Amino acid sequence: MNYTENIKEGFRSIKSNLLRTVLTAMIIAIGITALVGMLTAIEGIKYSVSSTFSTLGANSFDIEKKWEGRGSRGGKQNKVYPNITEFQAKRYKELMEGKARVSVATQISGATTVKAGSIKTNPNISVQGGDENFLANETYDLEAGRPFSSLEHQSGAPVAIIGPEVAKKLFPKQSAVGQNIVMLGRRFKVVGTIKDEGGGLGGGGSNRMIIIPLETATQIPTSQPLTFSIKSVITNNTSLAFVMDEATGIMRKLRQDPLGQEDSFEITRSDSVAKTLDDITGYVKSFGVLVGFITLLGASIGLMNIMMVSVTERTREIGIRKALGATIKQIRQQFLIEAIVICVLGGIAGIIFGVLMGNGISILIGQGEFIVPWLWMFVGMATCITVGLISGYYPAYKASKLDPIESLRYE
């Protein structure tokens, strides 16, 4: 009996014991669904977030005040670094002219209530002040309206660009452009709305944001002194590392950091965030593989038990085959191939369900496109065959060692 005949015999046995086969294949399908589904979801979420980061450009870096947090660590009081002042930020922008497109911003409040007539938002609106390069450097597109004019930036006019969630909340039945809002004790005129970036991990940072001119932001009283953040985007072929080194020197000079001491500010490359994301997803993938392995381990034990029951039920059939001349090797191959066929059928179903489930999760959480994870599909199918070999070997070995005379007497 060759491999083709064994495969045909496996399908005939599967057809004659359809319910048992379906239950066995479902055990394998659940394990493969868990493995492929989790890994597909991780790939989809990673693609979604990476796409968002890529819009920020791999040729940019941010400068912010170094922050170690309050309190102490290891018995040593954490150092409090001075804020980046408006003068330092604007002077840096002047010195970097021609080398990078620099934007200066400051967060006024991260928990603001905004009113328009009798309607008001929850106290979860972020208010940012930004200069003329802020929208371009942060890649915020406008859904309606216009950016701030040069005169509005210079004079500190009470104008605002609001996020889509704020616009829908305050102006559900009309355009927000041209309307007035009240926040932080002042009235602002809405001149534009930011394009919806979606929720979840894939975007949404600007949905509950309000942007006002930087000069206007510096005129609003705050409980604590403002600290300014700086974003630099390289618009020519200059080396990013070279510009970052130059930026570090300029900032150390502006902030008067003593020679030999650490920087009082942090410079973060945009692609370093993506690298951190790769590290995190690597750990999550390892966890996903572990969960899938545990699930498949349980599935392989279940498959082995069912194959043992199959051997017991077909003891007389095995005796007849041996009486007709079937060898030990042929009997072993027959049951091994049957186990592998069942695993492959379950694996195909598991891969389909896993890809659908994983993409569903990634689309629900982020904004990822539909991904076909060919690598994980191949890994899933290879795993199925391996599980079939491992789980089916002992039952096949036991079947091949049955005594034909005793098997023929079995009732």
From TrEMBL:
Annotated ranges, domain ABC3 transporter permease C-terminal: 290-404
Membrane topology category: Multi-pass membrane protein
GO molecular function: transmembrane transporter activity
Cellular component, GO, one term: plasma membrane
Compartmental location: Cell membrane
PANTHER family cross-referenced by the UniProt entry: ABC TRANSPORTER PERMEASE YTRF, MEMBRANE COMPONENT OF TRANSPORTER-RELATED
Protein name: Putative ABC transport system permease protein
Organism: Rufibacter quisquiliarum
Organism lineage: Bacteria, Pseudomonadati, Bacteroidota, Cytophagia, Cytophagales
